[in-house]
Amino acid sequence: MTRSGGATTPSRGTPTPSGGTPTGLRLYRPRVSTWWWTRKRSYLVFVMRELSSVFVAWFVVYLLFLVHAVGRGEAAYLRFLDWAASPWVTLLNVVALAFVLLHAVTWFALTPQAMAVRVAGRTVPPVHIIAGQYTGLVVVSGFVLWLVTR
Amino acid sequence: MSRRRVQPLVWLAFSAGGVAAAVLLPSLALLFGLAFPLGWLDPPDHQHLLAVVGHPVTFVVLLGTFVLLLVHSAHRFRYTLYDGLQIKKKRTVAVLCYGAAVVGSGATLAVLWAAA
Q1: Which of A45, A68, A145, B10 is 20 to 30 A removed from A36 (C-alpha atoms)?
Q2: pLDDT tens, B57-109?
Q3: Which residues between 49 and 88 in chain B have a beta carbon less than 8 angstroms from any beta carbon of chain A?
Q4: B15: chain A residues, CB-CB within 8 Å
Q5: CA of A33: how far to CAs of A25, A50, B79, in Å?
Q6: A125 in contact with B at a CB cutoff of 8 Å?
Q7: Neighbours of B32 (CB within 10 A)
């Protein structure tokens, strides 16, 4: 005997929703098109932002190629630079950099919504959080430039 | 560890990787991806780069950063496949994405170790 009575008693031929108790109801599961995100600009930007993940992974692989070449010696390093200057690699890097910048801009814009920073009992205005991150970008970029070119 | 304990850690790594991708990656990508190969700037000489790459601090920073970037990328791509392309084989997608991140992290360690 079930607690909620006969309505939930399993019987043959009753549809069972995944993980739930059998009911006499059919579940309505609308089909979502694979291309739903092409219908609206904001959807497109969302999916492009998510796709930046592929290009982040590409740059990790690319930078590992660089480190590997540097470790093998001067000739390998110069070969890497030649390979990196070829049209296909250049094109890929231009596209990948655009996606990484899209990631950076959207990431900075979302941070104040993801975390509320409080200093001395007051909430820091979102503009300051965003400006702080751009400052971080400039400082880190300056440091990288100084470190590799000095 | 149970799934409930792992999930916050993955989100934490996702966030840390997202910060690294936004703050550190643009300069590295611009310099080594375009500016040096295409001759916009004089590429650093090999001796100097080898010294930078071989420094223990660089090793630790690059290892940590690259692993976080890989986890960030895998985690985000997982949801791109679920939500963007409507692929509903959740377990397969998760195993492939995080599996790639784990393999990539191993490769990162091997490459950085060999070059240092």
Answers
A1: B10
A2: 999 999 999 999 999 999 999 999 988 788 888 889 999 999 999 999 999 99
A3: 49-50, 52-53, 62, 66, 69-70, 72-77, 79-80, 83-86
A4: 114
A5: 25, 18, 16
A6: no
A7: 25
